[in-house]
Amino acid sequence: MFERRKDYIDRMHKVSFPAFAVEKAGELGLAVVSSNLCGDDGEHKFHTGHSAIVDCRGRLAALQSGEYVAEWQRPCFIHAEIEVQQP
């Protein structure tokens, strides 16, 4: 199982892939949702706004790649059905 996850992560490194979240979610059996700042943070630092949902099996359920061109940034919404394990 862990070998298949490693292969998956290696193939997906070509895009804005949340590798750490996939590894930890699968390892710990927890779902992970990340929503990142998009645009100027007021401290002269620009953020692209990558967002992702990973289920408790370590499966990437949704991904919104950030936008690197400020003029093209728009609000976005991602959603996904995820697998939930009982504690």
How would you portray this structure in words?
- The protein is an alpha+beta fold and 87 residues long.
- The protein is 24% helix and 22% strand.
- It contains two helices and five strands.
- The chain has helices at residues 2-12, 19-28, and strands at residues 32-35, 38-40, 46-48, 51-54, 60-64.
- The strands form two sheets. A three-stranded antiparallel sheet has the order 1-4-5, with helices on one face. A two-stranded antiparallel sheet has the order 2-3.
- A hairpin with a 5-residue loop joins β2 and β3 (46-48).
- The longest helix has 11 residues, at 2-12.
- The protein is elongated, with a radius of gyration of 14 Å.
- The mean pLDDT is 83.
* Average pLDDT figure: 83
| DSSP summary, beta strand count | 5
Class of secondary structure makeup: alpha+beta
Largest β-sheet summary: 3 strands, antiparallel
How many helix segments? 2
Percentage of β-strand residues: 15-25%
Give the overall silhouette: elongated
Helix-residue proportion: 10-25%
Order of helices and strands: HHEEEEE
Q: How are the strands of the biggest sheet laid out side by side?
A: 1-4-5
Distance between the termini: 20 Å
Q: Kindly provide the radius of gyration, computed on alpha-carbon positions and rounded to a whole number of angstroms.
A: 14 Å
Low-confidence stretches: none
